[in-house]
Write a structure and sequence with these properties.
The structure holds 2 protein chains of 2 kinds. Chain A is of the alpha/beta class. Chain A contains 12 helices and 12 strands. In chain A, the strands form 2 sheets. Chain A has an 8-stranded mixed beta sheet with strand order 6-7-8-3-9-10-12-11, with helices on both faces. Chain A has a 4-stranded antiparallel beta sheet with strand order 2-1-4-5, covered by helices on one side. In chain A, strand 11 and strand 12 form a beta hairpin. In chain A, helix 5 crosses helix 7. Chain A is globular. The two termini of chain B are 18 Å apart. The radius of gyration of chain B is 22 Å and the shape is elongated. Chain B is 74% helix and 0% strand. Chain B has a single domain, classed as MetI-like fold, CATH 1.10.3720. At the A-B interface, helix 2, helix 4 and helix 7 of A face helix 9 and helix 10 of B.
Chain lengths: 311, 277
């Protein structure tokens, strides 16, 4: 059985202009020990998908569908049951460590808190464990860093603290939201390697718009566009020979592959284009693409793609 | 705190100087005071070498009274302020964090307490309870918390939307934990400024109540000294050494607290302007 099975998930937000369909009929499965990268442009709904799993969305949000985690539907749990799962079973590493760390608490204490919350250790043991976690993130001089405040750390170090915090409760499933955002190339490579090493043996959903990072840290990659998944395949296949024109465009926009941007901009999530949501920007758009919404097709070896060209 | 030290302006420095002066007086009262403030002697002596500020109607040394009075006045000031800020902080935290119906009820209660004219009510309460400094502390504490509650609430409204609160929730923290571990430490700066200003207010209120004869006659506070000077003819007969010193002490101590409090508030505002966290 899969660790996480998302079935027909719809997450809608009411807004003044209409219903924002941030996640629209998403099916996604993550196996035990699998690391999945969720790739997409800003505003395509990938963070909302992550937040839906761990249920950190405001009460006005409408969520439908099923999120089966270890045989239990997370959407059917009470808030208290959900709180017990968070951090210990499923942990979320939020984006932007500068605002996601409490500015007035020492970073070592913030990690120790998570350990105490889930491990039942006393204060001293938790602090020692926190330093150990920091050391595992390869932060130089962890003993000293643990006694510092977030503003005394660099962006890369803060990201390491976030990762240590996220993994402090020994979760089986980690949701990492944009862990490489705003880091320089060298730090980014280090963080990606760190994520890969530290999540070994766990399952992970890594939300990012950095295809290269996802390719290095993840086994499989799912591509999201305008609230829908367009393609799910192994990381190698997505990077080497993707079928969907959007994924191809994404790959060609990588600096190492020609830095060719995809023309146009992301469509509205309130009133998405008819037919295939990508057709207004698609270089290989056909007549049928305007009229009919392509279904998700299962290819060989469990890959999926949503495009008429790939049948 | 380093930043605070660098940003010390002269009014704050002056406030700190005044405050430490009175703190030393209060702490070392038995060493500084030349006489027992309760010991009677020759009445109505003007200031001289033996009695630097003269004596009162039953010959007690006024300088010694002042020194011991610093203890009572500061104690009431600090303690009443602590009670009021503690109440205000709790109400502000919960109404800001919970929002909704709890917010309506708590802020409604705050508005009601806010429109009650404080001094007349305190006079009534103080008159109907036995005159003791504890009752004064409770009366001041129970009526002075409103502005703290409002300031803390508005700060909490900002903080509860911060990503680190969401991050804590994403790692399994519950509401109480978030309020006390993550939000409260971030409000300490504004609470501190409120606390210092409330000490000044509480000292003034204590002096007013004591002056009106509602103070604790067993305790020599500056307000009680003024009260006796007034009721036993010090003002009419022009015994200025009897009523001026306590009046000046009250003014200087309040000035010290106000200067520090305003300095802290200004610092908070500057920081909020640079970093709207």
């Amino acid at each position: 059985m899969a660790l996480l099975d998302i079935i027909n998930l719809k997450t809608y937000f009411p807004s003044a202009d209409g219903l924002v369909k941030a996640v629209d009929a998403v099916d996604l499965r993550i196996e035990n020990g699998e690391r999945l990268g969720l790739i997409g442009e800003t505003g395509c709904g990938k963070t909302v998908l992550g937040m839906s799993i761990i249920r950190l969305l405001s009460s006005s949000t409408r969520i439908q569908g099923q999120i089966i985690y270890k045989g239990r539907d997370l959407l059917g749990l009470t808030e208290d049951e959900m709180r017990l799962l968070r951090g210990g079973e499923i942990a979320m590493i939020l984006q932007n460590p500068t605002t996601s760390l409490n500015p007035v608490l020492k970073v070592g204490d913030q990690i120790a808190e998570v350990i105490r919350l889930h491990g039942g250790l006393d204060k001293k043991a938790a602090k020692a464990k926190a330093v150990e976690m920091l050391a595992a993130t390869m932060i130089p001089n962890p003993l000293m860093r643990a006694d510092q405040y977030p503003h005394e750390l660099s962006g890369g170090m803060k990201e390491r603290v976030m990762i240590a915090m996220g993994l402090a409760g020994q979760p089986s499933f980690v949701i990492a939201d944009e862990p490489t955002r705003g880091l320089d190339a060298r730090t980014k490579a280090e963080i990606v390697k760190l994520i890969r090493d530290m999540t070994a043996g766990r399952s992970m959903l890594m939300i990012t718009h950095d295809l290269k990072a996802a390719g290095e840290a993840c086994d499989r990659i799912a591509v999201m566009y305008a609230g829908e998944l367009l393609e799910i395949a192994s990381a190698e296949l997505i990077l080497s020979d993707p079928c969907h024109p959007y994924t191809q465009g994404f790959v060609h926009s990588l600096p190492s592959r020609g830095l060719q941007p995809i023309p146009g901009s992301s469509p509205s999530l309130i009133d998405p284009p008819s037919g295939c949501r990508f057709h207004p920007r698609c270089p290989r758009s056909m007549d049928i693409c305007q009229r009919e919404h392509p279904p998700m097709i299962r290819l060989h070896k469990g890959d999926f793609v949503r495009c008429f060209l790939c049948t | 705190m380093n930043e605070f030290a660098r940003n010390l302006s002269w009014p704050v420095l002056f406030g700190l100087l005044l405050l430490s002066l009175f703190m030393i007086l209060a702490a070392l009262a038995p060493l500084i005071a030349p006489y027992d403030p309760w010991e009677p002697g020759r009445p109505f002596l003007p200031p001289s070498g033996t009695h630097p500020f003269g004596t009162n109607d039953i010959g007690q040394d006024i300088f010694s009274e002042l020194v011991f009075g610093a203890r009572i006045s500061l104690f009431v000031g600090f303690f009443a302020s602590f009670v009021s800020v503690a109440i205000g902080t709790l109400i502000g935290l919960f109404s800001g964090y919970l929002r909704g119906a709890a917010d309506e009820v708590l802020m409604g209660a705050t508005d009601i307490v806010l429109i009650i004219p404080a001094l007349p009510l305190m006079i009534i309460l103080a008159a109907h309870t036995s005159p003791s400094i504890w009752n004064i502390v409770i009366v001041i504490g129970a009526l002075w918390w409103t502005s703290t509650a409002r300031v803390v609430r508005s700060r909490v409204l900002q903080l509860r939307e911060m990503p680190f609160v969401e991050a804590a929730r994403g790692l399994g923290a519950g509401d109480c934990y978030i309020v006390f571990k993550h939000i409260l430490p971030n409000t300490l700066q504004v609470i501190m400024a409120k606390f210092i200003l409330a000490v000044a207010g509480a000292m003034l209120t204590e002096a007013s109540l004591s002056f009106l004869g509602l103070g604790d006659s067993m305790q020599k506070s500056w307000g009680m000294m003024l009260s006796y000077a007034f009721s036993r003819g010090g003002f009419i007969n022009g015994y200025w050494w009897w009523y001026l010193p306590p009046g000046i002490c009250i003014s200087l101590a309040v000035l010290g607290f106000v200067l520090i409090g305003f300095g802290l508030e200004e610092l908070n505002q500057d920081e909020t302007a640079v970093n709207p966290l």
